[in-house]
Specification:
about 90 residues; alpha+beta; 3-stranded antiparallel sheet; about 20% strand
Length: about 90
């Protein structure tokens, strides 16, 4: 009996570097910067950046989970010449 299998789809990963960097920048502007610029509310800008980072991360996870379906196909050959194909999706 000979068994072979191959991966049809590849698992993707989420790139979280962008949302994390944006969130850190927003958090710094909210809680660590004590200076002020006339006409600019740095706390509001930090809040907007932090919210944008959260939305970016959630959307990235949602859209990546749709693409990360993995399919494996296995074929088994017996001594009598019977061939069995099996495909699994996870």
């Amino acid at each position: 009996m000979v068994r072979s299998s191959r991966s049809v789809g590849a698992m993707s990963y989420v790139n979280i570097g962008g949302p994390v960097a944006l969130g850190i920048l927003g958090a710094i502007l909210i809680w660590a910067v004590g200076d002020s610029v006339s006409g600019v509310d740095l706390g509001l800008i930090g809040t907007i950046l932090l919210a944008g980072a959260a939305i970016w991360l959630v959307l990235g996870l949602i859209f990546n989970s749709r693409r990360s379906v993995r399919s494996t196909q296995a074929t088994t050959y017996t001594d009598q010449g019977h061939v069995t194909d099996r495909e699994t999706r996870a």
